[in-house]
TrEMBL record:
Secretion signal span: none
InterPro entries, alphabetized: cNMP-bd_dom, cNMP-bd_dom_sf, Env_Response_Regulators, HTH_CRP, RmlC-like_jellyroll, WH-like_DNA-bd_sf, WH_DNA-bd_sf
Record domain HTH crp-type: where: 148-216
Keywords: DNA-binding, Transcription, Transcription regulation
Keyword Iron-sulfur: no
Protein name: Crp/Fnr family transcriptional regulator
Residues in Cyclic nucleotide-binding domain copies: 14-117
Protein species of origin: Albidovulum sediminis
Keyword Signal attributed: no
Entry-linked CDD domains: CAP_ED
Domain of life from the UniProt record: Bacteria
Length: 234
């Protein structure tokens, strides 16, 4: 595998606790795969046999409820891993994965990792760490849904995309607004209202770009007590 792909893979939580030697052994059998926008990477209910690491583009994880409603569980990009918890148990994927944009992913067969695990028990710690990281991310999402207003969730989303600590900043929305709404547990019309509310905090949206007049001010709003945020006029 090319050095640049190895470097991206090592960013994934699964590999952070592994030695260079073990990581190289795992990745020696990995394969790079490309998917066009809208392509299915794996299906909900499909037998899980591989772990994926996003190299480029964006991948959506979603679940279809019995009534046919789609619930977006997460949207992942470069350096994020998918599927560890179920692949190592040979369980089924509880969600489906779809390429939101043209993307490339590294596919790692779970069995190749499990074979190495017999001689290198330390790999188990890396597996547990990756599983915990995904669980922690889901807990954070639940906390946002329960303890933040819609506008605060959008503000936090923009701050996550920003590479500025203070002052003015412009961020590019990485995927369409319908998916952003789903990722934040909102309806598209609620997202539009949230963007409108954020204008009073210096946020203006033009097509797929959001201009933030003052990152610190927006961060203060995102972290504000929700009881105060809810009572602000729209």
């Amino acid at each position: 595998m090319k050095p640049e792909l190895m470097e991206i893979a090592r960013r994934a939580t699964l590999f952070r606790g592994m030695s260079e030697e073990i990581a190289a052994q795992v990745l020696s059998q990995a394969r790079l795969r490309s998917f066009d926008r809208g392509a299915t990477i794996f299906l909900q209910g499909e037998r899980a046999s591989a772990i994926y690491i996003v190299v480029s583009g964006w991948v959506k994880l979603y679940r279809i409820a019995p009534n046919g409603t789609e619930a977006v569980v997460g949207v992942f990009t470069k350096g994020r891993s998918i599927g560890e918890a179920v692949a190592f148990r040979h369980d089924v994927y509880p969600v489906a994965a779809e390429a939101v944009t043209d993307c490339e992913v590294i596919r790692i067969e779970a069995d190749s990792v499990l074979r190495l695990l017999q001689d290198n028990p330390g790999i188990a710690v890396s597996i547990l760490a990756a599983t915990f990281a995904h669980l922690h991310g889901l807990v954070e999402q639940i906390e946002q849904l329960k303890a933040q207003t819609g506008a605060q969730r959008v503000a936090e989303f923009l701050l996550e995309l920003s590479d500025c600590r203070e002052g003015a900043c412009t961020v590019t929305l990485p995927y369409d607004k319908v998916l952003i709404a789903g990722r934040l547990g909102m309806k598209p019309e609620s997202l539009s209202r949230a963007f409108a509310k954020l204008r009073s905090f210096g946020v203006s949206v033009h097509q797929n770009h959001a201009k933030i007049a003052d990152v610190s001010r927006l961060r203060d709003y995102a972290e504000e007590d929700p009881a105060l945020a809810w009572n602000r006029p729209a």
